[in-house]
Amino acid sequence: MNLQTILSTSRTQCAVQCNSKKRILEIISQLAAENNRDIESDTVLAALMHRERMGSTGIGNGIAIPHGRLANLDRVMAIVVTSEPAIDFDAIDDKPVDIFFALLVPEDQAEGHLQVLAGVAGKLADKERVKLIRKAQSSDDIMQALA
């Protein structure tokens, strides 16, 4: 999976100062809306919060993959944010999370949504890649780590 087709430096941020699950999702929502005039940050936040109410998207090892479906989206969009410090995200391993790889998908692409999730989870299973993301000092560093 080539993540450069769904991610850009304008949708990444490093070492965001944050202390709550809701606030990190707000930051992700704002980044998404700033980079797509067809979506509103409130709509993105509602989709992400709806998914989190079904169960945390914290997959363990300090990583979460928040995701949601949006009606006004025409293609898959990714947002990557790292936080400092790591925050409680109700992850499966009960460890705090500092890498957030958010996915927004068109409402009508259920099958594609699952394939993208699987591809991202596979990339984030690479411990060396995760170390590089954690060390990232810029959006370019994040993009290189995911290349």
From TrEMBL:
Q: Which residues form the PTS EIIA type-2 domain?
A: 5-147
Cross-referenced CDD domains: PTS_IIA_fru (cd00211)
InterPro entries in alphabetical order: PTrfase/Anion_transptr, PTS_EIIA_type-2_dom, PTS_Nitro_regul, PTS_SugarTrans_NitroReg
One of its Pfam families is: PTS_EIIA_2
Query: Superkingdom of the source?
Result: Bacteria
State the name under which the record lists this protein: PTS IIA-like nitrogen regulatory protein PtsN
Which organism is the protein's source?
Alteromonas arenosi
